[in-house]
């Protein structure tokens, strides 16, 4: 009898206090999700929980501001009564959870967080692209949905009970007062924590606007996206210059950068006047080149080029939220990408001191850009003509064969060959530069079996690694056919071919699925060690490999050295260094990691290079205005 009495008392208490219990459960649920998301964001790959990262990067603001954001989100539920309050609370939970999942999936691919601009771009992108992003989900992500298993049935039970026996509700006036107290107090706390006066003299606890991860940690993912959206909508970026302090800091950086000098490892102007075919390959990693699987070369056509190539083996990706378009930006301008969003969208009206403009003015080159990604979300059509200043560009390709959401490389290059012939005719007696973007090796790395060229071991067949190797072999085959076509057209006699990957591939997107293969195949490397290739191939060059730490920001100065164009032309706008004439050995990656050898004096400049790039592009310093 006593046990039944106690159970009944508990039931009565739960029913009477269910509003309070439900709101408490929601608050704890959102707080736990936020802490779990931090463990994801502070991990090296975003696929496992690193709880120590929070404490290594701890700031006071990280402790209090998330509580205020959660109270702010849940405050709207207090304005409603009965079942409407529960629905509003669940909607807040869904929004909060969706923001978290969006952030860590995006971070797995781009080492950054999505800005409001990117969310709009993604929503309007091809459904196939959206589908490929879902391949980045992992089973531990289900932890963020566990609370719904409890909260939704509980809500349904109470809603049914309330409809049968409606309780006495608080007056609208009292509900409004409760809402205003919770809402305004949380806004006040956030205003104080993010107020300039509070943080002005405490750099340790300051969270810069361009530190997107720091913003998400401080504000929660939901708070970060709300703040970002409000900023984009109501306070669009109208920066048109730099402060004197920023100008001085950037000038000091360029003074330090331009002081670099070492004995030339390749003669200045060694390939002067040569035509250039630049192949920018989607997700191409360096480990695939020069290696074999089951006795078969993965890239036999690229391998044939190595005897007359300068090959760089430690080129690390540097792209951020603009992904492939960030690679274009670096190759064409030698400037790192901006911190938040794609530069080609946000600053399409800029006129960069670009590689095509330098080649045209200093070497009388005729320049052309080819990309089969029609109606690209990265705004290539607008940018390549105006901001990057190619003489001509073509994205008008028949989309006849689609692999991995994009025009197949074989079809792309078959259609490009006559376009290059036309470029040669338009160039007349002058040399030409043709930049060609290939996309078949895009994640999720799935080709039809009829395109498979490798006989893979059983442990690789059907895996992400095996599928990736098949994609790279297919791309290599398409490149071989294209170069043969150029040879037959007589266009290879005085031509340099450059090959690079725009960013990482299978190790970038699926580290948790492929790192295990490095035990059986050490040459494959891991997500911690992968690099992208950079190969300059010309009959004038002897086979040589370089182990300098470098990135795509260094490509333009290095190419211009081979072409005999003086560094005085570009040294005060290019951020990268000439890899053929440098005494330095470092690279900075998108997550802030610095690899290589550097002094304490040098690191103060290196660690801020992305910040400098953000200021350079946003402030229009180092770019030419129309």
Shape: globular
Give the tally of β-strands: 17
**Number of H/I helices:** 24
Multimeric state? single chain
Tell me about this structure.
With 626 residues, the chain is α/β, with parallel strands linked by helices. Helices cover 48% and strands 11% of the residues. The protein contains 24 helices and 17 strands. The strands form 5 sheets. Strands 1, 4, 6, 7, 10, 11, 12, 13 and 14 form a 9-stranded mixed sheet that branches. It is globular and about 95 Å long. Residues 196-206 and 621-626 have low confidence and may be disordered.
Brief sketch in words of this structure:
With 626 residues, the protein is an alpha/beta fold.
Secondary-structure map with pairings?
Layout: H1 2-16, H2 18-41, H3 52-56, H4 60-75, H5 83-110, H6 116-123, H7 127-133, H8 146-164, H9 172-193, H10 196-199, H11 212-234, H12 244-258, E1 275-281, E2 292-293, E3 296-297, H13 300-305, E4 309-316, H14 324-333, H15 343-346, E5 351-352, H16 355-363, E6 366-371, H17 380-385, E7 392-394, E8 402-403, E9 406-407, H18 409-427, E10 432-438, H19 464-488, E11 495-501, H20 506-509, H21 511-514, E12 532-537, E13 544-546, E14 550-551, H22 555-562, E15 585-588, E16 594-597, H23 600-606, H24 609-618, E17 623-624
